[in-house]
Amino acid sequence: MRIQDIAKLGKLLAQFLARFACCFARIEGRLLLAVYVNGLMSHVQRKNVEAMALDQKVAPRTLQRFLESIVWDEGRLRDRCQQIIATEHADPEAIGSIDETGMVKYGDHTAGAKRQYNGSRGKIENCVNHVAISYAAPGFNCLLDARLYLPKEWADDPARRKENYIPDDVRFQTKPEIALDLVDRAKANGIRVLAWNADELYGRDGVFLDGLDERGEAFVVEIPPNAHVWLAKPQILRRPSNHRTGRRKKFPRLSKRHQQPNEVQNLARYSPAFREQTPQRYRIKDTHKGSEVWEICWHTCWRKTHTNKLVSKQGTLIVARNVLTDETKYFLANRVPGRDGWSLRKLLRVAFGRWPIEDCFREAKEELGLDHFECRGWRCIHRHLYVAILSQLFCARVRQQMSPSEDVLGGELLTTEQVRRAINVHLAALDFPPRCRHRMYCEEIERQGYYCDRNAKAAKSHRTTRHKRLLELGIDSDRIKSVFPKPHRT
Q: Tens digits of per-residue pLDDT, 15-63?
């Protein structure tokens, strides 16, 4: 990032926020949106309303009113973000990801708070969970939408609903049901992706997979080892035979020989379709710690549906084994290599393309205070989430516009942290004379350069170590097929 790039960040941010003026009934709301975004971009460690207000020299109660009582349409702001992505960042290779993230909360007064599994920390604790979807294209990724998961005991308690201003139309929904609603909303705003991916929580939910199928969406989801599929299409009986006796049976129905599918872990271990295959090695991704090489086997399959069709269309079962850790993953896709422009590489790119949403969660929490809210009401929480998503979208746009290339490993693709720090320096330097501003910009560029060089050296060391470990196994990662296209200069 250059001095002139930092100098124009303030103007870019003002122009970007002006595109959301339609979401506010009065100028007070538009001004407070800028204050709130500046607070999220600031150096404040804990980005709750009070800390941000004091940093931005605004009365804390004024910023609290921005979340709870000032009239503005947070749903329209969220939709506007998605429309900007759909029109200005559309990419035929974009991948959509579905996941949830937990946020620790102390006490039980925050909407949705209870002792439940927190995937971010890998344990059961008092927290709230949000289901989210993200959009990842070459050189660009950000969150699209997020919604609070409301446990059943919260949804069925009128007193708690009233205390936290939970709308009457909000009912209990499972996380996969919420995810389908988020996908529908994104599609209505023009978002189009190559395919969706998700973890085992969604992969084991047949109703969720049926929902994506009905919407015509491609997916490659991770499934648990005890998930069931057929490797040969099961026979469906449409009408009873002429010589039937005994109790009347329902039709259509699966034939008796095909009623029970098999576990994917048993198919991978014992089925001739997999045992007789020679695993293909693919370089799944190149990280700062080196190349990840997996051995891949696949076969067409069918799954049981929860609709009148009984059996899904032909899909693909993928079994992947990490050559270094021996970890095994199972993926289910509703597309087949060699048909409709799909290849095994493309399926693997989607299957292992869940890391962008994890990066989005980490960046939004560490840099933009996604989980720092201290409000309790339903609307307040979602207003904070949507403004944080808006802030991340702006950072993603700056990263794409100002990065020399998409080369992450070489340090040429800017990070959200670098963009946030640059914006913070620009805003902090506005009241200083030009000479002082220039010095502050130079210090920030020097600081960013130092960390880029340090991270590049560390990445080079990690990659060398990983390369040696692979060579010890007789694997030259440079000669293995990669599922991702090579980064290109912009």
A: 999 999 999 999 999 999 999 999 999 999 899 999 999 999 999 999 9
Contact 399, 413 (CB under 8 A): yes
Residue with tokens 């290849």: 343
Residue 393: closest CA among 192, 28, 146: 146
- The sign of the CA dihedral 222, 223, 225, 228 is negative
What is the token pair recorded at 38? 């500046």
Report helix, strand or coil for 447. Answer: helix
Say how many Å lie between the first and final Cα of the chain, rounded: 15
pTM of model > 0.85: yes
Sequence spans of domains, the chain: 3-75+361-408, 200-353+409-416+435-490
Q: In the chain, count of helices (H) and strands (E)?
A: 18, 15
**DSSP calls for 25-81:** SSHHHHHHHHHHHHHHHSS-SS--HHHHHHHTT--HHHHHHHHHTS-B-HHHHHHHH
**CA–CA distance, 490 with 216 (Å, rounded to integer):** 33
Positive or negative torsion for Cα 222, 226, 230, 234 = negative
Q: What is the Cα–Cα distance from 424 to 6, expressed in whole angstroms?
A: 10
Q: Is the dihedral of CA 254, 259, 264, 270 positive or negative?
A: negative
Nearest of 388, 327, 397 to residue 361 by alpha carbon: 388
Distance CA 425, CA 420 (A): 9
CA distance 241 to 227: 32
Which residues make Cβ contacts (< 8 Å) with residue 427, sequence separation at least 6?
10, 38, 41, 42
Residue 123 near residue 379 (C-beta atoms within 8 A): no
> Would you say how long the chain is, in residues?
490
Strands 95-104 and 195-198: parallel
383 alpha-carbon distance from chain centroid: 19
Q: pLDDT tens digits, residue range 101-136?
A: 999 998 889 999 999 999 888 899 999 999 999 999
CA angle 282, 291, 280 (to 5 degrees): 15
What is the C-alpha separation between 3 and 12, in angstroms, rounded?
A: 15
